[in-house]
Design goal:
The protein is mainly alpha-helical. It has five helices and no strands.
Length: about 150
């Protein structure tokens, strides 16, 4: 898979992130800083970096471009990208439908598989443990509304 295509996918995900930021409901409490400030700053920075990455790939100056004839990328690059994209997409699509834990665990599983983690019980326990810890920290302790940890669709 070419680096230009990967950069384009990153910009598509940045566009999806912008859409998600604008779907955050307004706070019922009047304050100077609303709930969309931090996510919008983060998405703006990631989008800026995505545009910069696209320009560096177009000019063949990206650090992950091969510059020598004998250079070869690591095997399984397309599979790695699909793991990351699949994990992120599963979180985007499923978070509102079935709650936080399962989509966050699937997203973490996609990222870990992209970095060559083996699909076994240890990996599953780690990613779902991390997702549960984030839910406890943000939702239970800090009061950020992430929804239920698991929401049954019926």
């Amino acid at each position: 898979m070419s680096t230009r295509l990967i950069a384009s996918f990153l910009l598509v995900f940045c566009a999806l992130a912008v859409w998600q930021v604008f779907s955050i409901p307004e706070s019922t409490i009047h304050s100077e800083v609303g709930p969309i400030l931090a996510p919008s700053i983060l998405v703006a920075l990631l989008s800026l970096l995505g545009v910069f990455y696209l320009f560096t790939t177009i000019s063949n100056k990206a650090p992950d471009c091969t510059h020598q004839e004998e250079d070869r990328p690591l095997k399984g690059g397309s599979r790695r990208v699909l793991y990351i994209l699949g994990g992120g997409l599963s979180f985007i699509v499923l978070a509102k439908v079935i709650g936080f834990l399962i989509p966050a665990g699937l997203c973490g599983l996609g990222v870990s598989m992209a970095f060559d983690a083996k699909f076994n019980l240890k990996t599953l326990l780690m990613v779902f443990g991390i997702a549960g810890a984030f839910w406890v920290l943000f939702s239970a302790i800090l009061g950020v509304d992430l929804g239920p940890i698991v929401q049954l669709p019926f």
